[in-house]
């Protein structure tokens, strides 16, 4: 098992909050994380239909058996428990009483806000970061291998090929969650929508165009997109709000939380196919933004990450923010060869943003990281060494 960076923050929050929740996509390693971090806690999986039935039919009686030092896995499956958890927490008020995990961000946070607001620390566990693999001596053979495979732990622990893993992941987890828990009935149409979303990876999102391509209404497309975001399948990256004298694109960019899933949806069957694919640059950019996001989530922080593009298509791929101001400017190139022109837009816009040269970066797929006269050239494999939250 590859240790997860989030474990340290999980222990810290359990010392201060009576309830700590770990949510994230299915198969991201939540159950393994909480069980290994709290080995003396009793583990209750609400995926088990018998246990789920007992908990939903008599939540008060069920919780009387388990009122402290308990892990409830997939807690969103039994929303009836939340009001009674509140009563136990309020009467005892002990730190680390309950560790909750769940795969549906929307359903889980809705119940938390209704019943456990102010009593719970909330963390997100995404699939493995490249930095976690590297620090534990498990780096993939190449960057394209990593982008093609993605970070779901079972791919590595069980040595399952991505072309076998992801179709089953989609049918077993995504389809089931969408159908059973969120009430989407047009599963075939939804799966078509999901595949077409993959073709938008790394692009500015045009919801009307996406809806037209799927032959659905814009309203339905917006609802389905919200479901994918709530299920930790994809996310939108918003533009930085200040224009610096330029007319800006205001629509968000679209990404997946895991590049392996996106590559599979695009019909890419090997790292070699990815290398020659028209989607190579988009997927590499996706891999970079997710790696940056994981730097935030692994320490319990919300990402302060944006992009910047003006109406003349001048773009800075990513802007990080610190203390309410632009902090780092990042350009992404999927090539393994460095060219100084990669810094062109960064050189133009960064001075207006107040970003100094030491915080200007080009991330590429080459092996060498070094300082240049324009800023820092960073290999994807060294992201963790250059970007700290």
Automatic annotation (TrEMBL):
Cross-referenced SUPFAM superfamilies: P-loop containing nucleoside triphosphate hydrolases
One Gene Ontology molecular-function label: ATP binding
Cited InterPro entries: AAA_14 (IPR041682), DUF4143 (IPR025420), P-loop_NTPase (IPR027417)
Swiss-Prot/TrEMBL keywords: ATP-binding, Nucleotide-binding
Ranges of residues in domain AAA: 18-133
Pfam assignment, any one: DUF4143
DUF4143 domain sequence ranges: 175-334
Name the record gives this protein: ATP-binding protein
Protein species of origin: Alloscardovia venturai
């Amino acid at each position: 098992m590859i240790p997860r960076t989030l474990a340290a923050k999980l222990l810290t929050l359990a010392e201060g909050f009576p309830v700590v929740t770990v949510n994230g996509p299915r198969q991201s390693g939540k159950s393994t994380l909480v069980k290994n971090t709290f080995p003396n806690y009793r583990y209750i999986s609400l995926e088990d239909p018998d246990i789920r039935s007992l908990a939903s039919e008599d939540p008060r009686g069920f919780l009387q058996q388990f009122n402290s030092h308990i892990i409830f896995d997939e807690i969103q499956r039994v929303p009836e428990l939340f009001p009674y958890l509140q009563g136990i927490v309020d009467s005892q008020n002990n730190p680390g009483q309950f560790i909750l995990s769940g795969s549906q961000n929307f359903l889980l946070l809705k119940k938390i806000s209704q019943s456990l607001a102010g009593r719970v620390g909330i963390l997100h566990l995404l699939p493995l970061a490249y930095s976690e693999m590297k620090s534990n001596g498990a780096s993939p053979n190449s960057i394209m291998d990593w982008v093609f495979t993605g970070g779901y732990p079972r791919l590595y622990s069980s040595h399952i090929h991505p072309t076998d893993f992801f179709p089953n992941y989609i049918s077993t987890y995504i389809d089931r969650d969408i159908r059973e828990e969120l009430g989407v009935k047009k599963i075939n149409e939804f799966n078509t929508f999901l595949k077409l979303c993959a073709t938008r990876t790394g692009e500015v999102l045009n919801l009307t165009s996406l809806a037209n391509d799927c032959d659905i209404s814009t309203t339905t497309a917006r609802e389905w997109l919200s479901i994918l975001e709530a299920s930790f399948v994809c996310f939108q990256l918003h533009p930085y709000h200040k224009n610096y004298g330029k007319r800006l694109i205001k629509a968000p960019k679209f990404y997946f939380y895991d590049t392996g899933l996106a590559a599979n949806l695009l019909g890419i069957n090997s790292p070699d196919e990815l290398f020659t694919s028209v989607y190579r640059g988009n997927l590499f950019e996706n891999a970079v933004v997710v790696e940056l996001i994981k730097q935030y989530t692994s320490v319990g922080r919300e990402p302060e990450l944006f992009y910047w593009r003006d109406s003349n298509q001048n773009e800075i791929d990513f802007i990080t923010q610190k203390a309410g101001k632009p902090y780092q400017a990042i350009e992404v190139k999927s090539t393994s060869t460095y060219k100084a022109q990669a810094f062109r837009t960064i050189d133009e816009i960064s001075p207006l943003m107040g970003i100094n040269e030491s915080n200007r970066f080009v991330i590429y797929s080459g092996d060498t990281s070094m300082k240049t006269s324009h800023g820092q050239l960073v290999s994807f494999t060294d992201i963790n060494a250059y970007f700290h939250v």
